Amino acid sequence: MSETGASEMSVIDDAEQRGRTDLWPFWRRLYAQGDPLPRLTCTVSRPSYRFDEKEPLPEEYKGLLLRMLRHEGERAGNKSFLGLMASCLDLAETLFPTAEAKLLKAEYLAEELKHGIMFHRLAVGLDRSFALCDVPYAHYAFHLPRETWADDAMFHFFVDLNGAFHSRDWRESSYVPLQKMAATVERDEVGHSEMGYHFLQQICAEARGRALAQHLLTKWYAAALDMFGRSDSPNVPKFIHWGLKSVGNAEIRQAYKAYVDRKIEALGLDVPDERQNRRFL
Amino acid sequence: MSAIVEEIRSAYGAVGITLDHPATYGTYYRLLCAGCGRIVGNVGDKLLPGMAAALVDQQFELYAAGLVGCACGHQQEQTRALDAGRWQAARERYGASG
Question: Inter-chain contact B28–A86, Cβ cutoff 8 Å?
Answer without folding.
Answer: yes
